[in-house]
Amino acid sequence: MVTGTGVVSSVGAGAEEFENALFEGRSGVGPHTLFAETVPGGAAAEVRNFTPQQWLGNKGLRVLDRSARLLNVAAAIALRDSALVQADGAEGDPGLGLVCGTTFGSVHSITSFDWSGLCDGPNLVNPMEFPNTVINSPAGQAAIKHKLRGVNSTISAGLVSGLYAIHYAAEFLRLGRATALLAGGVEELAEESYLSLHKAGWTSASGVARPFDPDRDGTVVGEGSALWMLESEEHARSRGAVPCLEVCGFGSAHDAYSLESYDLRAEGAESAIRIALERAGLQPSDIGAVIASANGSRAADAMEARALRAVFGDRLPEVPVCAPKASFGEALGASGALLAITAGIAARRGSVPPTAGFRKAEGGLRLSAGPQPLAGDHLLVDCFGCDGNNTALIVRSLS
Hints:
By secondary structure, the protein is α/β, with parallel strands linked by helices. The chain has helices at 15-23, 53-56, 66-81, 107-120, 137-146, 161-174, 191-199, 233-238, 267-280, 298-312, 325-328, 335-349; strands at residues 2-9, 12-13, 29-31, 43-45, 96-101, 152-155, 180-187, 224-231, 245-254, 287-291, 321-322, 351-352, 372-373, 378-384, 389-397. The protein is globular, with a radius of gyration of 20 Å.
């Protein structure tokens, strides 16, 4: 069960601001500013004017890099939303933990530290920066900051990391190895990852992500952090919390095809969706909307469209689809969690957000420039990666 939400994205921080931006069709895409001096030009879905002090205060911020700050803010918001903030001076709940998905982690900190060691020598590196050079440093820093004494795990599985983290946390709860877990993902916008994706030919030349559009020309790199507070129903009700969502089923499958390109046959993507439906005890006809993984990549969107046609068949034109990466960009390891939170918002409102900047869609997909009513109680969340990882999640509203 979901009892709290924390989100920081290019279109807003906090569930309410994020929700309003999505339903207004706003986009967080614009010229990047974080490394404009070294990489002039180019678009990104950047968290602009990010000031974590309003959520975290000033204490301890100096040692936190951008990834850790993004994750700490999302954690602070989710803990407040679920009424599980740990008291000052207390040791913290040993059953409360964090599972975080990320693709590159604190990649700028890692690169800077290594570059300093290579250029200046190991005796001149800054030892204060060393804790940020491991991929699980954001999760570790969040556990210290918020007194999360339970499970602390980092999942690194490319673009699907955030959705894998939600499933991993749900399994820990099901097995009784935790009582409450923050679960989701984080990814920072950094010069290193931005240039890597640009040189790999991923990024849009027009600077606009147009998911499923026949004229799409690539994705726009984003950043952010998104977390759900997950609890068993028994634990939530025992402390008087009212769950708002249920995680009903999860599926994953791998295409042993390539480490850097999508398998257009879509066998893994289709299989992941069917496994999620089976685990939830549902049929494709029970799905009321799809929150799509589509990011404007020609190959990625074509693969997803093929998988959806295979699963839904002739009913596909009747199923509302939203591709929210048009708003918050391709946030890599945080994307799956951002998509899941979008689904949760849609489930609670009974309406699917518009796809920002929507003009037209190929393949008979029902995207829209305005909100669409749900066609059923359950929502499907897709999240597919270019390395062969494919995941799907099904949620429903409890309100």
